[in-house]
Structure formats: structure tokens, C-alpha cells
Design brief:
Strand order of the largest sheet: 2-4-6-8-9
Pfam family, one: Pentapeptide_4
Distance between the termini: 70 Å
Number of strands: 9
Structural class: mainly beta
CATH superfamily of the largest domain: E3 ubiquitin-protein ligase SopA
Helix content: under 10%
InterPro entries: 5peptide_repeat (IPR001646), Pentapeptide-BTB/POZ_domain (IPR051082)
Mean pLDDT: 95
Number of domains: 2
Oligomer: single chain
Largest sheet: 5 strands, parallel
Low-confidence stretches: none
CATH class of the largest domain: Mainly Beta
CATH architecture of the largest domain: 3 Solenoid
């Protein structure tokens, strides 16, 4: 039996929704707990203040989706196609994106803290002012990305590609400045001093 999009204020827990086709659907205030959406089709999907908690979204086709105030908490987006999606005021804490396609991506006022974005292409993406606390950006491509004013405290930047990225005003407390190449990266004075000291320079006050 074909499963249609749930009505507003619905709670679904432990449901297997693999392969559902909710293209161009609109979900409002729906909560999904521990649900599976393997290979689901969500093209141009709109979610408004929904919650996806510990859900599996492996291989979902979510290109062009728009999310407003929606939370994806500790979800997996393995091999998901999220290109052209818009995230506004969302919370993605603890979610993982192995092999996912995110570009092009529009994101504003969104919390990416504790996410795993290892190896993900985020080049040229505007992440200014957004939270990436303890995000794992190992091997990610952030070339030409705008990270001005972002919260990067304790983010993992091991071998992250950052040439042309703008980090000015970002909170980089706890970042390992030995883990990545800063060539071509825009830094503010405080960051430049921190980098120099991390590499043994004696910087006068």
C-alpha cells in the first residue's frame, strides 16, 4: 500500500518508510522517531518545524527541498542527494553525511554542531554566522567557503581544503592549527596570531 505524507502534528515512531515518494509534498510539525527512509524520493519537499530523530535517510533524493525550522537529530544521510536544498533555522546536530551531495546549498541560521561532514564538498558555500561546534570536517572541501563569524569551536579540520575560504571573525577556539594548510585562507588578526603561536612563533603583545 502506498504511504502518503502524514498530516500536521503527526507522530511516527519506528516506521519503515523506505522508498516512499513524497515529491513536492509539504510536511508541517510532523515528528519521526527512529524511522527508515532508504532511497525515498523527496524532490522539492518542504518541511516546516518537523523533527527527524535518529532516522536513516540513506540514498534519499532530496534535491531542491526546503526546510524551515526543522530538526534532523543524529540522522544518517549516507549517499543522499541534497543538492539545491535550503535550510533555514534548522538543527542538524549529530547527523552524518557520508558520501552525500550537498552543493549547491543554501543555509542560514542553522546549527551544524557535532555533525560528520568528512570528505563532503562544501566549496563556495555560505556558512557565515552558523554553528559548527565540534563538527568533523576532516578531508572536507571548503575552498572559497564563507565562514565569517561562524562558531568553529573544537571543529576537526584535519586535511580540510580551505584555500580561498574566509574565516575572519569565526570562533576557532580549540581548533588544531597544525591539521590543515592555511595558504590562501583569509584570517583576522587574532587568528593569525593564534596560528603563529601554534607554530612556535614568539608574538609580542
Amino acid at each position: 500500500m502506498e504511504v502518503g505524507p502524514p498530516l500536521p502534528d503527526t507522530l511516527l515512531e519506528g516506521e519503515d518508510l523506505a522508498g516512499v515518494e513524497w515529491d513536492w509534498a509539504r510536511l508541517e510539525r510532523v515528528t519521526f522517531l527512529d524511522c527508515r527512509f532508504d532511497d525515498a524520493s523527496f524532490a522539492e519537499l518542504v518541511t516546516v518545524r518537523c523533527v527527524f530523530d535518529q532516522c536513516l535517510l540513506t540514498g534519499v533524493a532530496m534535491a531542491g527541498a526546503r526546510h524551515e525550522g526543522t530538526a534532523f537529530l543524529s540522522c544518517r544521510f549516507d549517499r543522499a542527494n541534497l543538492s539545491g536544498s535550503t535550510w533555514s533555522g534548522c538543527k542538524l546536530t549529530g547527523s552524518q553525511f557520508p558520501g552525500a551531495t550537498l552543493r549547491p546549498l543554501t543555509t542560514a541560521d542553522t546549527d551544524w554542531s557535532y555533525t560528520s561532514l568528512r570528505g563532503v564538498d562544501l566549496s563556495g558555500v555560505d556558512l557565515s554566522g552558523q554553528k559548527l561546534v565540534e563538527a568533523d570536517l576532516t578531508d572536507a572541501d571548503l575552498r572559497e567557503a564563507d565562514l565569517t563569524g561562524a562558531d568553529l569551536r573544537h571543529a576537526r579540520l584535519q586535511s580540510t581544503r580551505l584555500r580561498g575560504a574566509d574565516l575572519r571573525g569565526a570562533d576557532t577556539d580549540g581548533v588544531n592549527w597544525h591539521g590543515f594548510d592555511v595558504a590562501g585562507v583569509r584570517l583576522d588578526v587574532v587568528q593569525a596570531v593564534t596560528f603563529a603561536r601554534a607554530h612556535g612563533a614568539l608574538v609580542a603583545d
